[in-house]
Design brief:
CATH class: Alpha Beta
Number of helices: 9
Order of helices and strands: HHEHHEHHEHEEHEH
Helix content: 25-40%
Bound molecules: zinc ion
Length: 226
Amino acid sequence: MNYMLKKKLLALIFPTRCPLCSRVIHAHEKFCDNCYDSITIYKGNHSVRGAAAFTAAFEYDSNISPAVILLKRGIRGNAAYALGSALAETIKERIQTENIDFIVPVPMYDTDRKKRGFNQAELIAREVGRILGIDVSTDCIKKTRLTQNQKNLSARQRTVNLKKAFDVENSDIVRNKQILLIDDVCTTGSTLAEITKTLRQNGAAAVYCAACCKTPDLKKEDVENV
Ligand SMILES: [Zn+2]
C-alpha cells in the first residue's frame, strides 16, 4: 500500500499530531501552521571536514527541540516523518542526489542502540530514503566503542573523543561509492567529520552530510572557553 495512503488511514484511528504542540493536523502535514512559522530554516554555511557538502533543514533552537526530544524518546508520533521529510526536501534543493548510491545514518554503539531500542538517525534516514528513492545501509559502518557524551566537550575534545570510534568492516561496500551521511542534530560536525574520514579512508568517492538541525556555530572564543 502507498505510504501516504497508509498514513492517512492510520490517522483515522490515531490522529496525526504536530510534534511541537500536539495539535491534530492532516496526515500529510509535518507541523501545524503556527509551529511551522516559529521554526527557523537553516541558511548557514557550515562545512564538515572532508565532506563534499553539508546541509541541514532547521536551526536548532527551543522552537524545534521538542520534536527532536520526541524522536529520541521513542514516542515518535509525527516527529520522524516531520523532521525526515523536511530534511529530504532540503537535500533535494541543495545537494545533487542523482549520483548518490546509498544513505548511511550515523551509527550508535550496539549497547546504546539496544538500550534505546532504535537509532533516531536511522528513523530520519529511512524517511529521507523513502522520499528520495535511495537505499539505506545500516551495516556498512559500525561504532566500535563507547564514547563520552559530546555535549560538554570542546570542539578539540570532541575530535579526540571520536578518534577511531567507527569502522568499515567490508570496504568493498563503500569503495567508489557516493554516500549521503545523515544525523538528527549536528553541533560542531565532529561526528560527521570522523565518519566521513573513515568512509573516505575505505575508498568512498564522496560523502555528503545532512542533519535535521544544526546548532548555531560556536565563535572561536567560545570554543576556547568551553
Ligand atoms: Zn504545532
